[in-house]
Amino acid sequence: MTVRIGYLLPTRESVMEGRPEAEPLLNLAERAEKLGYDSVWVGDSVLARPRHEPITLLAGVAGRTKRVKLGTAVLLPALRNPVLLAHQVATLDQVSAGRVILGVGIATDVPNIRAEFRAVGVPFEKRVGTLMEGMRLCKALWSGKPVDWDGRWHIEKGVLGPVPHQPGGPPFWCAGSVPAALERAGKHFDGWFPNGPDAKVWAEQWRQVQAHAREAGRQPDAVEPAVYLTLTVDENAATADERMNNFLAGYYGRRPDVMKKHQACFAGPAGAAAEWLNSFVQAGARSIVLRIAGDHQRQLEIFAKIREQLTA
User: Fold this and answer.
1) Is the pLDDT of residue 299 over 90?
2) Which of 46, 180, 43, 181 is nearest to 113 (CA)?
3) Domains, the chain, ranges and CATH?
């Protein structure tokens, strides 16, 4: 079975470093497609971790690429009105001729993200219910049929146009690895998309997702097994580790050792990187999204060669 490799554009890093221009990001997306990557991804945050708005930027990527899937890693739908989100995503899916994947999450419970939710007028404590209802409303609108809705949002015979290029709309992949997220992924989502911490834990959690799918009367293969990994390669392991530590500290404003307990990270030589990635493949992952710490042009080339060593 083919392993699909994706690449996360460094939107957050670009803003942090005072280089917000979109052209270099679009160039990286084009480069990833030429190197054979299967997908290009964009993260999401409004105020907590400022970066480019993902739907807008992916529209730009769609215009510069022809083949790669376009994903969010991950979108926080609860921050958005789902009627407007459904319209935006449907248009993006038409622009890209059906290449959109919506990785979605509920956000981490930390002070700056709570403040972000307050800023957009969304109760943080209600974010799970807001996400789930919003997803159902998007799917209803993507049918193209008149929608009546009486919940957090009120619609009377609303008809959305255009509908997405993909029948029924783009797939939703659920981020998260706490028990409730595993249950949501198995019962309600098209994919499971956690970010760590290691292949052994990922494999056990994937079995739980599959069990929840069976309980819901779904086929386990209805859920795409994916994973989001952070890597940097250097033949000098100490140099790679220092780069990773600086990246995590700058990105999150937290101690790197703390972040590594929750997120799957690798820093070291290319051969060891291939073995580490293969541990997830052997555990069952079929879609791997790479977040690169360091020189993106050079690392893109390195991982394009490493992917040839991945065997499902």
Assistant:
1) yes
2) 46
3) 4-182+192-204+221-309 (3.20.20.30)
